[in-house]
Amino acid sequence: MADPDSTMNRSDFPILDQQVHGRPLVYFDNAATSQKPQCVMDAITEAYTTWNANIHRGTHHLSQLATAKHEEARTTLAKFIGAEHSREILFTRGTTEGLNMLAFCFGEAFIHEGDEIIVSALEHHSNIVPWQMLCERKHAVLRVIPLNQDLTIDLSAFKQLLNTRTKLVSVAHVSNVLGIINPVEEIIRIAHEHGVPVCIDGAQSAPHLPVNVRTLDCDFFVCSAHKMYGPTGIGLLYGKQQWLEQLPPYQGGGEMIEHVRWSGTTYNELPYRFEAGTPDYVGSYAWGVAAQYMQDCGISSIAVHEQELTAYAEQQLSQIAGVRIYAAAQPKTGVLSFNIYDANGKLIHPFDLGALLDQQGIAVRIGHHCAEPLMDHLAIPGTVRISFALYNTREEIDLFIAALQRAIKMLA
Ligand code: PLP
Predict the structure, then answer these.
(1) Of 33, 54, 80, 178, whose CA is between 20 and 30 Å from 207?
(2) Which residues, at least 6 apart from 324, have a Cβ–Cβ distance to it below 8 Å?
(3) Following CA atoms 121, 124, 130, 135 in sequence, which dihedral angle do they give, to the nearest 10 degrees?
(4) What are the pLDDT digits (tens) for 339-366?
(5) 172 ligand 1 Cβ < 6 A
(6) Ligand 1: does its nearest atom lie under 6 Å from the Cβ of 96?
(7) Is residue 36 part of a domain?
(8) Which of 39, 199, 218, 370 is catalytic?
């Protein structure tokens, strides 16, 4: 895997072996969602063909088997992110639901009029809007950490923002637009000096970097399976047990209760108190298989491979006239955003580039990447974003650069 030309593991992903518009598919939209290895698809088929049954309350064989698979997956994922207990892993529908859940539950328990929550200026909408909604509901205030010139988070401004009204900090581990790895260890340390808990949006870190929530010492962490070679529709919210124990439930229904009487309801223990209704036990099982697959590949090797691809792509891109890459700051994962300006300094619209790249079999993402405040900061309507996974290769970058040059020629 350390060899960036390696196509090791690529054959595990059958979807990649196809032509799009008569050209070999080059899939560079991995920050949006990754492709799935055969073992994950096999796990889903196996679940429905051999052990599907609703979990937890069943006494019969299949139900007990399904329950065991679901809970084993919770343990696998707890280990994957370095959690101390599997009861600190709450299954959600994804990062977005994890953040909404935290905003609701933490908000109910701890946020009052005039309290403050801090996010950064480069967040995904999922780590902005739930906090805005909470602030509106509770008459609290959302504070935003500004960025330095090089688009890194301004840590001295962050220190200035913290005060006795600050109740929570929520920041991305890795920017989904810039690929920059944010100094979250530092942010957590500074926030904790003020007694403030921190939530880390790990949607773009868990798929690409070794993550250990205990080493980070974050209080909450969220991520999505579908960006980690796993299935869609499932994610997790990690919370330190001492925090989760203080939060009220998110939704009411089956599974989350201890007893229901007309006189009132008592709630289940962790983690079930936060998991109303039938959970996605096939999804959790398949995600556990995906996590194991990543571990077998070696998460550090995946990180090195993707970072080498990014460095190569950045070097190739920088030779194209009129290119602007956002941003040069390091360290980075496998995400690169850029725009092309024509000889008159006019932006070639990323939508036009995206369409012409697609015609040549290259899948990239264009637009604001659910980070409109960051686009406003950069004063651009959007970018072209390429993002890598373990199966991408240097040859694909060469195909992409050639296709981009053809597209620019057509548009200039
Ligand atoms: N946060 C970040 C940094 C992301 O990149 C994304 C998705 O792109 C999300 C949150 C939302 O993830 P999901 O759509 O899986 O809920």
Answers:
(1) 54
(2) 338, 339, 340, 341
(3) 10
(4) 999 999 999 999 999 999 999 999 999 9
(5) yes
(6) yes
(7) no
(8) 370
User: Total structural domains in the chain?
Assistant: 2
Quick check: 267 and 256 in contact, CB under 8 A?
yes
Going by the DSSP 8-state scheme, the letter that residue 180 receives in this structure is B
**Structural domain contains residue 1:** no
In a domain, 144, yes or no: yes
**Residue 393: beta bridge partners?**
none
Burial of 371 (C-beta count, 10 Å sphere; 0-12/13-18/19+): buried
What token pair was written down for 264?
């009132």
* CA-proximal residue: ligand 1, atom 6 (nearest): 203
Taken in order 199, 256, 78, 210, the sign of the CA dihedral is negative
d(Cα 112, Cα 119) in Å, to the nearest integer?
18
The answer to whether residue 250 sits within a structural domain is yes
**274 neighbors 101 (Cβ within 8 angstroms):** yes
Q: What are the structure tokens assigned to 233, written together?
A: 């529709």
Q: Which of 265, 339, 331, 295 shows the shortest CA–CA distance to 76?
A: 295
pLDDT of residue 3: 45
Smallest Cα–Cα separation from 169: which of 203, 144, 205? 144
- 314-336 average pLDDT score: 93
Please give the distance, rounded to the nearest whole angstrom, from the Cα atom of residue 373 to the centre of ligand 1. Answer: 15
Q: Is 201 in the pocket of ligand 1 (CB under 6 A)?
A: yes
Q: Is 228 found in the same domain as 104?
A: yes
| pLDDT band, very low/low/confident/very high, at 8 (cuts 50, 70, 90) | low
325 and 279 inside one domain: no
For the whole prediction, is pTM greater than 0.85?
A: yes
Contact 73, 104 (CB under 8 A): no
User: Which is nearest to 234 in space by CA: 270, 290, 284, 293?
Assistant: 284
Task: State yes or no: is 370 an active-site residue.
Answer: yes
If you average pLDDT over residues 68-86, what whole number do you get?
Answer: 98
Peptide bond into 231 cis (omega under 30): no
Looking at every residue in the chain, the average pLDDT score rounds to: 96
122-147: per-residue pLDDT in tens? 999 999 999 999 999 999 999 999 99
**Domain check: are 76 and 202 in the same one?**
yes
Tell whether 326 and 183 lie within a shared domain.
no
Peptide bond into 249 cis (omega under 30): no
The torsion region of residue 390 among left (phi > 0), alpha (psi -120 to 50) and beta comes to: alpha
- Rounded CA gap, 354 and 127, in Å? 26
Per the structure block, which two tokens stand in for 108?
């109910």
- Residue 327: closest CA among 179, 174, 147: 179
Domain C-terminal end among 296, 327, 356: 296
